[in-house]
Amino acid sequence: MAVLHGQGRRQGEARGYDGIRRYLVALQPTLAAWTAANLTTLREISQDQVEKAVDGLSGHARRQLAICLRSLFRALRQERVIFRDPTRHLPVGDLKGVPQSVPRDMLAGLLDQVTTPLGRLAIALVAVHAVPGNDIRTVLTTDLSLARGTLEIRRGLLRHTVYLEEFTHQLASEWLTYRHRRWPASTNPHLLVSQKSALDPDQPAVSIGLLQGVLPKGLTLEGLRQDRILNEAFETADPLKLMPHFQKGIR
Which SUPFAM superfamilies is this protein grouped with (predicted)? Predict the structure, then answer.
């Protein structure tokens, strides 16, 4: 508990006691089962035993237990209580139920197939930053700051900051240049506008159908977003870092 609260040998992210309590509640049945099996120390836990602990679960329950186990053993290794992390290769998602990734060759040439600045920016926000399509269509021009390299995503009173890497920053700049040149009289506050919405006095957001229409046949905005999340989940060393970046709900 002290390690999760930021009081370990090395300085790390300090989690609140409410969050730590949820971790312990999620871990309790597994720890009790290992104790009943006469395992007296977590040093005895093997990779097979960890995998068996999550095998009977699916969906949210499996993800939650996998995340908690990885966090527990990572903390123990950090404190040199154990020298081998049995959860190192434990997938966080339910591999039997996860959606299939978009083929890599299709992703690689995706932007080359899109001819409009709007389409290229929309695809980058989904495929690189995993921003949901419905959030992209409601972003306001004032939410984008090229100077700071940020994009604010709104949901009611809540905000989430997307930090743009160089490529998406360039696409955002190209879109703004195109938009101002194409519709200089537009007062629509939304960042993305179309031929129909740019000069509409009601100042509507573009439709999700318009965004979907920029994709090659067979791909969807949500499919691209899921692919981005899956790739990150399999590449990252710390699944907890995925949560603030890719959760659908924004804190």
Answer: DNA breaking-rejoining enzymes
pLDDT 10s digits, 72-123? 888 778 777 788 888 887 776 544 444 444 555 555 577 778 888 998 899 8
The answer to whether 2 and 11 are in contact (CB under 8 A) is no
155 bridge partner residues: 158
Residue type, 90: L
What is the dotted CATH code of the domain comprising 17-98? 1.10.150
pTM greater than 0.85 (yes/no):
no
Q: Where in the chain is the domain with CATH 1.10.150?
A: 17-98
Cβ atoms of 41 and 57 closer than 8 Å: no
Beta-carbon contacts of 250 under 8 Å, excluding residues fewer than 6 positions away, are 153, 155, 158, 159, 160
Whether residue 53 has pLDDT greater than 60: yes
Q: Is 51 helix (H, G, I), strand (E, B) or coil?
A: helix
Residues forming CATH 1.10.443.10 domain(s) in the chain: 104-231
Which residue type is seen at 188?
N
Pair of tokens at residue 5: 């609260």
Q: Which two tokens stand for residue 111?
A: 């932007």
- Classify domain 104-231 at the CATH topology level: hpI Integrase; Chain A (1.10.443)
Best CA proximity match to 159, nearest among 126, 135, 123: 135
